[in-house]
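Fold it.
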Amino acid sequence: MTPFKHIGLVGRPGHAGVVDSLERVLDFLQRRDLVAVLDTQTAGLVDGRGDIHCDGSELGERCDLVVVVGGDGSMLHVAKAITAAQLPVIGINRGKLGFLTDIPPSKIEAGLEEVLSGNFSVDRRFLLEANKRESDGSLRALGAALNDVVLHPGNAAQMIEFELFVDGRFVYSLASDGLIVATPTGSTAYSLSAGGPIMHPTLNAIVLVPMYPHSLNSRPIVVDGDSEIRLVVSATEDLRPQISCDGQEVFSAKAGDEIVIRKSASSLKLIHPLEHSFYGACRSKLGWGNRLEKED
């Protein structure tokens, strides 16, 4: 018997093959006599199919498992809606890289059969929360991120100045295009493109990656995952630097603003088929070399 009875199904337009994959998952769930719960946008993609339709924020109350059909961006979108409910989630990759969505379209039925039969591994991914420190010392929540919180100049490619503190200790002042504060999950995303290291997703660590720093001595730093990261926008800064969480702008900072970033109490419960391997995903997605076959 499957431990999952009510299956949430989320797909986003914009990826080729999403509708076809959604239809296949619905057919599979119907054959298994399982309840398919669709958010309203997903239901619109498949002409109203599914047993229950609801707002995306209600998935946590109605499902035992969520299946995301799309790319990693789709998974990022869903993650913030279900982490509080600690729902397990699995992804079917219809995007480009797919570090978070690891069932290929060719193995939809086989992959789901394994998971629904209880044959899966569980991978918990922590999120970051970004806050602004108010004048009275309190923190105002700005947003949460599974991949990264980024300080950047906004639309214009202009250098900004800020100070970095880790656990209350001054690290450096920096003039750059900004700073990426990334989780291990996010280390294979924007952080990687900016020259940051790849971190295994089970690490309790945060990487700080300067973006095009004016000083060539400014290198990525890996700190403990329970550290408090504080960014102070330069008092002379006349721009309005932006704070983004997983690519979504959440706040326009001004001179003197303090942004506090730390691990969220919530985590994403990501599940995989048993054959899943992070290193295998790196070989596939990043073009790492496979083992050489021995000659006879």
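The chain has two domains: 6-119+274-286, 127-265.
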